[in-house]
Amino acid sequence: MKKIYLICSLAIFIGIAAGISYFLIRDANTKIPGNVTLINQNGDQYIFGKDPTKLKLIEFIYTHCPDVCPTTTQKMAALKKDLEKSGVFGEDIEFITITIDPYRDTPEVLSNYMKGFGIENSKDWVFLTGDKQNIKNEQKKIREIGEALQFQYKDPGNGQFVHTTFTYLIDENNKFVAKFPMGDGFNREEVKNKIMDKIN
User: What's the half-sphere exposure (Cβ side, CA atoms, 13 Å) at 100?
Assistant: First the structure.
């Protein structure tokens, strides 16, 4: 009887270990394609593979989000100030906010969203959307980025998106480094420490 319990326990342990290993390997191999292009809050083109010199902290939002998105953006704005004091923001890391609702979130809407959080318009924190004239193709590109990071989202039909609640740190080559909870779970100090460890 003891042998059966031991065998069952070992099988469960191996199964759990295999599952954990799968997700670790999957995340480690995650990479955003460098040829994906979107447009920023100024209507200018942004190419993910253009600048292989900086880390990137990526958040996905939609401006009509009532809770987790604005909370995350607010916490990232505070983190930005911390990283500016450390002299690394803009030099070693940039922030990228990508809307999952490019039809409503035009460059003008994103610019106003930024102003609401006191975020200055600069190349070091870009807010990305798609070209409304080619919206179906732009939605595919945003989904391609999301799927590369295992970020899932869906519009159930009422404009209130259901989505994964993670932000992502990627390296200079657009490869996954780490992910952090959005909203109230976004720990500014933890994220800063991970960024500084990666820079140093």
Answer: 25
Q: How many CA atoms lie within 13 A of 101 on its CB side?
A: 20
Annotated binding-site residues read: 65, 69, 163
- Is the Cβ–Cβ distance between 183 and 72 less than 8 Å? yes
Q: Which of these, 119, 101, 95, lies nearest to 160 by C-alpha position?
A: 101
Binding residues for Cu cation are 65, 69, 163
Instruction: Give every CB contact of residue 96 below 8 A, 6+ residues apart in sequence.
Output: 56, 57, 58, 59, 125, 126, 128
Reported as a single tens digit per residue, the pLDDT across 66-114 is: 999 999 999 999 999 999 999 999 999 999 999 999 999 999 999 999 9
Which pLDDT band holds residue 156 (cuts at 50, 70, 90)? Answer: confident
In a 3-state reduction of DSSP, which class is residue 33? coil
